[in-house]
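Exercise 4. Each item below gives a protein and its sequence. For each, produce the structure-token representation.

Item: GTPase-activating protein gyp7 (Thelephora terrestris).
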Amino acid sequence: MVEIKRQTKEDLATSHHEDTDGNKYRLLYTKSKVYVNPTAYSRDNIPGFVAIVKREAVNPDYLLAWIPESLLDEKGRSEWDKFVSVEGKAPYDEEEDAVLIDMPTSRPETYAFSVPLTSVYSLLVYPPNLSSWYGSIAINLINGSTLPTLYFHDDESTSFCLSPRSPAPKATSPATYPPQSTSPQEPQTSWGGEDLIARLRNYSHVLRSSLDPALFLVDPSRADVEAHTTILFGDDEVDDILAQSSYANSFSPIPAHRRPRPIPTTSPNPYSSRSSVLHRSMAAPPPAMSQGTSQARMALLQSFSNIKRATQHAAQNILSHPLAKPIVPHLPDPVKSLVNANGEWEFRSWVEKGGVGEFESARVYLARWARVVAEEGERARRREAQVIPSSDEDAGEESSSLGIFELLHNTSNLPTPKTTRTPKHPVDTEMWMSWFDSTGRPKVSKEEMRREVFRRGISSVGDLRRTVWPLLLGVLEWDTTTEGREKLWEEKRKRYYELRDEWCGVPEVFERQDVLEERHRIDVDCRRTDRAVSLFAQPPTSPDDKTASARYAIVSPQNDEIGAQAPSNEHTEQLAAILLTYGFYERELGYVQGMSDLCAPIYVVMGGEPEMTFWCLVEVMDRMKQNFLRDQSGMKKQLSTLQQLIAVMDPELYRHFEKAEALNLFFCFRWVLIAFKREFSFNEVLRLWEVLWTDYYSNQFLLFVAFAVLESHRDMILRYLIEFDEILKYCNELSMTIELDTTLAQAEVLFLSFSQLVADIDRRRAEGEPIQLPTGGLRNRKEGQEGRDPDSTRGSSSLPAAVLPTLSEELRELLKARR
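Answer:
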């Protein structure tokens, strides 16, 4: 029997007293045929009731519960009828109507739960759509755990099948969530999850996030309200706004598939599912008379933009010409900034052919703006953290060296890794000399030296790098005396001149056709490599220099004209001679474009000494030779390994790249090819390379640096960039904006997290223990970065044991170090 009774105030007081033992609860709301899907098979789905229950007490609590039908069957028919009756009734007065129930005892295998609303942090709401017939709601708790995802089978539910719902009025926007009710007695709902959200608003503050339309915060804090109420422009809205101007009907170099969509003149589709923040926040459409004004304004702004862009291109063409070089230093700084960087113009032209250059995608603008805001916020957070110590409660998340990222280790209680780097205290000359005795024999092991260089870096004061780099790269032996190193070095000096004499001063070799072609490639690259460095920017000391150094010069006969290329000097010629000698040393590979970028910094650090520069280049190329193979098999392998690393560590980012057809990771190609040579300033490149050369953690630590850069800009990529050419342009424009020390710290933490994950998988496999890998990758609850896939938000307690993943050999090679 259904226990429904009218209560007076006296009876209500009595019922409160009777329910203080916790055995009786008042059922306020329920909905049937709400399923939990433990597996991917429909036969395993568990039907049940979602309910809002009030626990009677002096301070009453409101609970959100899901009860499977099997548990109600155990209670008997009377308890079942109570839920059915409440579901079929209209909203009633809580103070007068009461349906008291016995909360069934939950068992782990039933997936039942009941949690106070005060412990619910957020809801992830996914309405029904073409790809998912049933809407779903995932419940995230404040403690970080996630309850089983609830799927609303409205076609089976009593409240939707038997109780007719009057259609929503035509004036209601379909994008409004939840729709405005036409009367306080009968709110309009379209599916079961929306009905549940509307009822929850009676008992708690439910705020929809402007950062993610699917995210609803329950009783949010002040910080959450400020973070999740910012108005953002969605991708489609920017296109629609641009389409209102005359640009849509004017000539444009942009391909047709990249142009903004024209706004339809007919009435909008009443069944449209668009629910962007912009459409919900915009007021009523302006009168027709203002449309022409808006179009004229947009057309004028676009005209100014086109004039500015054409002017910049013309200025870059003029100022990048070698004849304009003498006047560039005397120009104002804003004008000097237009001078073209090395190789940038060719790459930019290639990007523009993809349809992004002349009229950049609005999403790239938004991503760039969001990146700047995020970087400023992160710097402000660090300054504040130095002044105000964080509380113990926040230490678990804020102390992570990933900054805004928090690596989820749902599979086990793995410790949170931290960076060991202290770049503010680099290895200086005094510390370096203390590592050797009077004979030059080291008092510390090479492993300790590598560790300190990785952690601290090398001081840029003086020429300490000139001493350290040959030992770090292995050109000179570590565990020997100064006398032993000098003896070994004399042998290497003789070997260098033997290689150089194979072409230098031998006309039949120097003028051979294949050598002429290689000389031309080397000469073109060396003339434009690091021209901002003083060593290569110096003009020739005298007009007779070329004649005096004819024995060593390899100037291409096709580039004798001063206007064809930038002028060279003795250091440019020495650099070219070193690269040509390397071509004779590594005959199978020869010279490949990009090697000059690797050789130039070494030449500068070695003070222009060709012998030591050559042998350091040999050691560097032994590490990076695979990058320059003609068939690009080495680059393909490294990008494939990086792709697998992203799939393991950040599945959500991997799926985004997959949807954008960007899994080839071509936007990381230049990073890996020349080890971020063009992404950092010259001095920062020196600091980065010496960290990479230590091989302290991994021989392929460069891939973790690339992964760290992607993770630093993860939110911008996921939110704004949905096409490959947009991601490519965005990543290309990161040049000279990446913070080196932060990136290296993040790369170290990512490596330590990866090694922990591999070790944990191997341990579980050896012990025969099942594993449950997180499918959400990286997330940060404090920043509201909830998982987007409802299936990926289930807690580990609600997932069945998964099969242990098999790590590829490429991923395991990332753990190899010490060449």
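Check: The mean pLDDT is 74.
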